[in-house]
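Weekly structure sync, notes
Attendees: PL, DS, HV (note-taker this week)

Item 1: tRNA:m(4)X modification enzyme TRM13
DS walked through the input record. Source organism listed as Eutrema salsugineum. Sequence as pasted into the shared doc:
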Amino acid sequence: MGSSCCPDSVVTSEMKRNLLYSMSVSKFHQLIKKIESVHGGICKDIEDSYLSPEACNIWFTKEIDRKLPFQEKHVLQQGSILGNLEKIGALKRCNKNVECCESNLDNKDENVSAVVEFGAGRGYLTQMLADCYGVKKVYLVERKSYKLKADRSLRQKENLVLERMRIDIEDLNLNAVESLHGVPYVAVGKHLCGPATDLSLRCCFSRQDDESPVLRGLAIATCCHHLCQWKSYINKEYIISLGMSKDEFHTMTWFTSWAVDDDHGSKIPGVDDIDLQASDSTKEEEQVKGVEDDSLRSVDEVVKKMKPMERAVLGFKCKQIIDTGRMWWVKKHGLDSKLVKYIPASVSPENTLLIAGKSTPSSA
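Item 1 (cont.): predicted structure, written out as tokens:
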């Protein structure tokens, strides 16, 4: 599997683009067919799971601290992320007018008392989680400094422990966080661009011992797959098993930018309704015939002839192939995991959620 770059180097966007446009037309056709075949075989079970949990009603009805920034789009996203965690049993609802989950924390085998939010930004996902599900320990992992954070509001909550860790996820060792020793927690992330998803998963499943935090569930909204890197990707064995090389992986990450860019992504009429798991075979045959026009002498010409819709669908398929590898890796490490579309594409085309928890009847 020859590669044009050093094994441990970062592959830039320009390098990825060059990998694509330096291909022969025949090799480009072969890669497209491989992607179509792989996607058709493994990406069939990504269900819609748009949830608005009752536990989050105080946010949906704007009964929250009016000093907090409120954007309906983000509230819908955050609510559905938490609703999916509740659906698989990783979060428990609080009783109205009762100090949330106080009595539940005695049973650490079943209930979660802490949240670790990776790529936390201002921390409003965790703010909603604390408001609606009553976790008692909050850990916000973010390397950047932000103004207008949720921290002030969180610190006003009684009996809540808040730690903001300004650190690269790659350098974080949760086993070294003393206040998390032996504590059941959920991991969440809504702003984990590209390789940050892989680094967060690796962090959650690092060496385990008796004092390690106890991962009960995770929900990560994946995004920005065009930034993914072979050196960071969590499941290289999976990509290799698909018959794909490192260069082909990086080319796939370039294709993913076609799914959501301004020219041919969310703005295309009908994109929201496309079934990416079961493309119509006739349309695929027509597409292949068009792409394989013998008069086209370069990949650049082939790409320019592709319809914006075709490029967008190809990009989404590559995203789902990359995320399926992550989902299988989590399964291999002991959690029941799946991919869902957690919000409509009309809210955001970046609408895939990797959700995982212990096997329970409610996760079926």
